[in-house]
Design goal:
two-stranded antiparallel sheet; alpha/beta; 8 helices; single chain; 17% strand; 6-stranded mixed sheet
Amino acid sequence: MAAAVNAVALPPGACRVYFVRHGETDWNAEHRIQGHTDIPLNDTGRAQAAGAATFFTSGAASAHAADTLQTDTVGGPVIACPAAIYSSDLARAAGTADVIAGTLGLPVTRDPRLREMNLGIFQTMTKSEAATKYGREWGLYIGSTEYRIPEGESRVELYTRVTDAVDDIASRHSDETITIVAHGGVINALWLKTKGVTPTTNKEAAARIGHPPSCRNASVSEVIISVDGEWVQHIWNSVEHLEGLVEAREGIF
């Protein structure tokens, strides 16, 4: 049974979004850069996806309605059940979403705007391989959020793409809870949004914010997006629903 998660009351007109990182792939296990490369879940990833589904059922009967709160055995609020599920169209995210959706009896809407960062020429390699083969390009990527990777995109472009997508999706779900299944790099970009910064924020301000917590496979994060477009973080990178099940691997890509 998943750990009880207290649902924060939803302000009028707001949308609650649960972000779920996809389960593990073989390339995650090999620390290989995936980006837009379409790698499916492995056996561990499928088990993690099933674990993520328990976050939303929490051992109680499944119920899905607009902002319906499930309760635990003593009647206290546990989590808000999603009214809709969205995912990246890449297999590792889509497969994770399908497992969650099957548990909750909901369809999944695929949205390519929720894809991982396009890491271009670095894809298929480990970080050390990329740094060795493409030393100049790797250094520019590490050193500048505005550097566009050859055949790929920049971190600024990723940020704009995914925050615009989430704002658009949330605008369709006023007074509802939704789930979005995506990728480590995407969720890290969204973390910046919750802190009120962008990839181009000056270094002094960014240093005060720090770095995003390492995003684990099948972790769950919660953000409430107000009718005015304010993002407020409530849960981040929770993996309690995976305890005793499978390792939740850190990292992005």
